[in-house]
## 1
Amino acid sequence: MKIGKIAKLGRTSIIAEIGPEDWRDLTLGGGIITVGAAAAALAAGALAAIAKSSPSVAIDEKGLVAPIDETARILCAGFNFGAHATESGRDVPPQPTFFSRFPTSLVGNGQPITRPAASESLDWEGEVALMIGLGGRHIPLVSALDHVAGYCPMGEHSVREYQLHGTQATAGKNFDGSGGFGPFIVSAATCPTPSQLEVFTHLNGVQMQHGQLSDLIFDIPKLINYISTFITLRPGDIIATGTPPGIGGRMTPPRWLVPGDTISVEIPGVGKLTNSVVDE
C-alpha cells in the first residue's frame, strides 16, 4: 500500500492506493485527516479495510504535496555513511548524531525546490526516509522495525554556507522549500528489507550518489532505538537515515544546484522523487 497527500480545490486529503491505480480518499471515507493517523492504521494492519470502504479518488500528480503532517518531527542522521563522513572531513561518529528539519523545508514530488536569495550554496543529499507508524519510548532493537509504517525518498538538500555558520546544522537545513519528500509513503511490508534498500541521486539525469543501507554506520533499528531514548516517537514522525558520498560541495570546483536543474532521488522498490530548482 501507499499513502499520499493531495491538495485539491482548497481541500487537503490523505489518500491510499490499495491496488494498481486504485486510490481512495481516506479523509472523506475514513475520517483520517493526518498522515500520522494513516501511518498508525497501516502499522496496525487496519488501513486496507478503511481504504476499501472509502470513496475512489482520481489523483493528479500536480496536486501531490509532501506526505508530512505539520506536527511531524523530522530527525535526520548525520554522517551515517562512513564514506560521506570521510569526504566531509569528519570522523566516524561513535554514536548516532541528529539534526532536525521542519515540514516547511520540504516540498512534494514535482514541486520546485527553492534556492534561497541568501546563498547560492544549495547542495543535494539523497536519502532513504522512514515514517513511524507505531509510536513508543525506549524501543528495543529487536522490535524496532515493527514501528516502521513505510519508506519514502527524501531530498535532504542543504544550504552549505549556512550549515557551516556554526556547529549546528539547523540553519542550512531549514530554508523554506529547499528539500523534497515523496511522492508516497510505501508500506514497509511491500518494500525490500532495510538492509537491501539502495538510494540513487541523479542531477539532470547524471548519477551523483549511490548508497546501500547495508553500509550504514548505524542501521535503522539502531536509529529508532537511539531516538526513542530521548523522545517518545509518534505516528507520522520521520527519520532520515543519512546521505551517501557524492555531494556537490566536495567537487572541485563545488557544483551547487542552480535554477533549471532537475534533481531526483530514487529508492528501487520504493519510488522516485523528482524536483526542479527555482530561485526564491
Note: The helical segments are 26-30, 35-43, 47-52, 82-87, 160-163, 170-173, 220-227.
## 2
Amino acid sequence: MSAKKILVIEDDQRIAQLLTRGLTNKGFEIEVAYNGTLGLRRAESIDFDLIILDINLPEMNGFEVCKSIRSFKPNLPILMLTAMSEIEDKIEGFESGADDYIVKPFDFRELYHRVLVALRHNNPEPESLGNIVRIADLEIFLDSKLVKRAGQEIRLTAREYDFLLFLVRNQGRIISKPEIATNVWDIHFDTGTNVIEVYINILRRKIDKGFEPKLIHTRPGLGYMIRESA
C-alpha cells in the first residue's frame, strides 16, 4: 500500500521541519508549502490525503485557503495548526471548513493521533448502495455521503457529516459529550474544550436554520439529541 500523502502549509520553517521529520518517520509522504498561495496551488494540482494548515500565512491566510480547498475538494481532511487560540478563531476555522483545530504549542503525539483519526474518518467502511438514513425531511445518503433537507443539498465537512450521522443514528436519545467525543473524535472528552458546542452550532446553522421542525436539541447538563419535536 502506498504511503498517505500530507501537504503541510506552514511558513515557520522550524515547525515545518519538525512535522516533516516526525510524520515521515511514521510512514507518511510529506510536501511543504511556505505560503498560502503556493499551498492552494499544490492542493489543486496534487491528490493529497490530508492537509495540515497554518492560519497566519504570507500572501493568503489559512481561512481563505481552507474555503478555497473546500470548493473543489469538499471531503479532503484539513487540520488547522495555529497559535490563534481564541474561540472566535476556532469558530472561523471550523466554519471555513476545517475538520480539526490544534493550537500551538502542540504535542506531536496528539497531532499524530488526530491525523490518524482524520484519515480513518475519511476512509469509512463501504456502505451498500442506496442506503439512506432519514429523520423528518432530513436525508443522509450513506453511499455518497450526500445530505439533503427538504430536497436541498447541505454541504458538510467530513467531521460535520460524521457528527450528524452519529446523532441521527441515535435519534430520540440524549447523547453525552463524552460519548460524542469517543464516537466522533475517537478521543476522551476534555472538559476544557468547547469543540462539541462549536460543531453543534455549525450543524444547527446548516441543518435547522430556515427549516421546520428544528431537529437538534440541547438538554442542559446532559447532552444533545436529534428528534422531530422538542
Note: Residues 124-129 have pLDDT under 50 and may be disordered.
